[in-house]
Amino acid sequence: MGLAKNGGFLLLLMAFVGLATAANVYQVGESAGWTVIGNVDYGKWAASKIFKVNDTLLFKYDPQHHNVLQVSRSDFHSCNATAPIATYSTGNDSFFIRAPGHYFFFCGFLGHCQAGQKVDIRVPKITGPAGVPTGSPIQPPQASPDGSIEPSPSSSESILCCNKTWLLLVFLMSEYLL
């Protein structure tokens, strides 16, 4: 009986850890990729996803006709490509989501952002039951005027999230083993 109980607990623990660490790779625009052709609605595409920390965004495109600029919120809304946070131009670029917040991207080629080749990726802080976000998103690190990156205030939030996860795990272990 003890072995069966411990085996069941091990299975529960493995499932819990698997759910807590699962990450996804999202190809931006799905099969259409990153383009202005075909009227891809990137806002609708992003709204249909639940992005989380450790997910990866994959931008696939023809580098002769497109690129990817990560920009600030204000530059995103005005399609201002003069001061990107980061520039990607290989045609097969990955962006790893390291922290909760909003991430803004658009194509820096003339007229493409205005034509809708832009996407706002929202990553909630923590998700509660049924994927309901708790709290408001945190902004990603922003470049300061001297070009250095200011640290994100999310590190304490991440620690809090992990502490809650481990607390839940310890509670489940104690309930199951006793």
UniProtKB/TrEMBL annotation:
Secretion signal, residue range per the UniProt entry: 1-22
GO cellular component: plasma membrane
CDD domains recorded: Phytocyanin (cd04216)
All residue ranges annotated as the Phytocyanin domain in the record: 24-125
Ranges for region Disordered: 130-155
GO MF annotation list: electron transfer activity; metal ion binding
UniProt name for this protein: Mavicyanin
